[in-house]
Each structure stands twice: as structure tokens, then as C-alpha cells.
Design a protein that fits this description.
With about 100 residues, the protein is of the alpha+beta class. Helices cover about 30% and strands about 15% of the residues. The protein contains 3 helices and 3 strands.
């Protein structure tokens, strides 16, 4: 197994539907890479399979190292809103003053 494959195996895959107006089907992405690498398919499993292929092809020449943000993200855990207030009434994460 290549270093790239090992790295990608640790990433979170997100699969979501594509609206019928946009052609339907599914899009799969790696949460850690945003929309920079994506796979598409008529069914979720096809989108995931294409995601793996596209990632291998497009990232093959990139240096393999975990992002400097990965250890920080792991240490902090998921960002959470400090309360249930709408986004416009407080900070977007648990850092900062409490919502009112």
C-alpha cells in the first residue's frame, strides 16, 4: 500500500446527492481536501470509487505528508457553537464570547 493510499484511508469521505436540476447522482469528497478532489456517480458507491481513482491520479506527484493543521484539528476536536443561537448572533465556534 502506498503512502498516499494510507493517507487517504485516514480521511473522511463525504457523500451527498446532486440535485436533479444539476444532473442527479452523487458527489463524494474527502472532508480534509474540500472540493479540490471529487468523484461523481449515479449511485453513492460509484462516486466513492471514482473519488479514489481521481485522488490517486491527481495527487500522485504531490509530496505525502499530513497537513500541519491535522494534529491541531485532532487535538481541538470538532468545532462547536457555544450555544444554539443563529450564526448571526454569535461566534462560529467555541472560541470567543458566549452567545446571547
Amino acid at each position: 500500500m502506498s503512502q498516499l493510499t494510507k493517507l487517504l484511508d485516514g480521511y473522511t469521505v463525504r457523500v451527498g446527492p446532486i440535485s436533479p436540476e444539476d444532473g442527479g447522482g452523487f458527489r463524494a469528497t474527502y472532508e480534509e481536501l474540500g472540493l479540490s478532489v471529487a468523484g461523481y456517480g449515479a449511485v453513492a458507491s460509484a462516486a466513492i470509487a471514482q473519488l479514489a481513482e481521481v485522488a490517486q491520479e491527481s495527487l500522485a506527484d504531490e509530496p505525502v505528508a499530513r497537513s500541519a493543521a491535522a494534529p491541531l484539528r485532532a487535538a481541538l476536536g470538532p468545532l462547536q457553537r457555544p450555544c444554539d443561537a443563529p450564526r448571526t448572533e454569535g461566534p462560529a465556534c467555541a472560541v470567543g464570547p458566549p452567545c446571547r
